[in-house]
Amino acid sequence: MNEERRSVKVYGYEHLYDVSKSGRIIAKKTNHVKVFNGNAYNFKNVHLYRDGKRELFRTYDLWKETFGEDTPSSEFKGLK
What is the distance between the alpha carbons of residues 20 and 27, in angstroms, rounded to a whole number? Predict the structure, then answer.
């Protein structure tokens, strides 16, 4: 499946994670999609890891900050 992916626009995480146009969070190093109970879109919050530490982010906020105003909210398939 080829869908548009962009780097997360949070300082320090740009080189580690991508956000897809539909709202999936993808680790760049392993190309692994963060999945919750078999559903890649069921995240409201997601932990991102950097240097052995984790930080909690709202998935919708990451998506909105990354894709901005060029993409309507109806493209986001996850929980808001």
Answer: 11
